[in-house]
Amino acid sequence: MIRVENLHRHFGGFRAVDGATLEIRKGSITGLIGPNGAGKSTLFNVIAGRLPPTSGRVVMDGEDVTGLPPHELFAKGLLRTFQIAHEFGSMTVRENLMMVPAMQSGETLWNAWFNRGRVAREEAAIRAKADEVLEFLTISHIADLKAGQISGGQKKLVELGRTMMVDAKIVFLDEVGAGVNRTLLNTIGDAILRLNKERGYTFCVIEHDMDFIARICDPVICMAEGKVLAQGTVDEVKNDERVIEAYLGT
Ligand code: ADP
Ligand code: MG
């Protein structure tokens, strides 16, 4: 579904991504691991159109999508979750979900926020969809809470929920488990597995929690120093000498 070919992203003379080549199979939940500073987030940002690459290509379903702006990738079903911005903290969880379809049409975040009254008035169907998403994620009880008041883990679930408001094909999750307690991490893992099985989403997941990766991901790709070191099942990658060395070296 996604092919990354010899991708480079340099910052000055520093090679954050240094010739990464990898594939994300359609229907997979692909894990992306590697020590801090390996270039994982930079790779995501290039794939999702937030950073232009220095060189190399990103191909989605056979089409060269290198350097397309985020909203065009979004319209093609390529989504990267983003944190709920500060200014949306005063909106409810449900409203945060309801503005996503407006964003997919290329509206800026600001316009989506500004027009939320219009969205709410015109789109009863969007409200029903948001409620269905909240139910799927087992967080209906926080629908009317202000997004700024929910826990870090609940925010992660809402971020995942935002991808369900539009026709996502592939979703990139960056450190979905960071600062999340074990129970919520399991809920997030369950939601990812169900979205994959029941709705056909493909995922690429950056996460440091190896139990989480082992439970939901196959295959796993390990990056270090901007390059892909190894790819395979969790056990294969965990036992790869270059991978062990990369982790020991940090
Ligand atoms: P990871 O997500 O694997 O921890 P990152 O992609 O965030 O790694 O970062 C890879 C390297 O690139 C780090 O050394 C980081 O300091 C550097 N880096 C990331 N973004 C920038 C930037 N905007 N400017 C300069 N250096 C950056
Ligand atoms: Mg990172």
Automatic annotation (TrEMBL):
A Pfam family hit: ABC_tran
- Which residue range or ranges hold the ABC transporter domain? 2-250
> Which PROSITE patterns does the entry mention?
ABC_TRANSPORTER_1, ABC_TRANSPORTER_2
Region forming the signal peptide: none
Q: Which UniProt keywords apply?
A: ATP-binding, Nucleotide-binding, Transport
Q: Name one GO cellular component term.
A: plasma membrane
Q: Which GO terms describe its molecular function?
A: ATP binding; ATP hydrolysis activity
Q: Is Transferase one of the keywords?
A: no
Q: Which InterPro entries match?
A: AAA+_ATPase (IPR003593), ABC_AA/LPS_Transport (IPR051120), ABC_transporter-like_ATP-bd (IPR003439), ABC_transporter-like_CS (IPR017871), BCA_ABC_TP_C (IPR032823), P-loop_NTPase (IPR027417)
Kindly give the CDD domains that the UniProt entry links to this protein.
ABC_Mj1267_LivG_branched
Task: Please report the name of this protein according to its UniProt entry.
Answer: ABC transporter ATP-binding protein
Species of provenance: Gemmobacter aquaticus
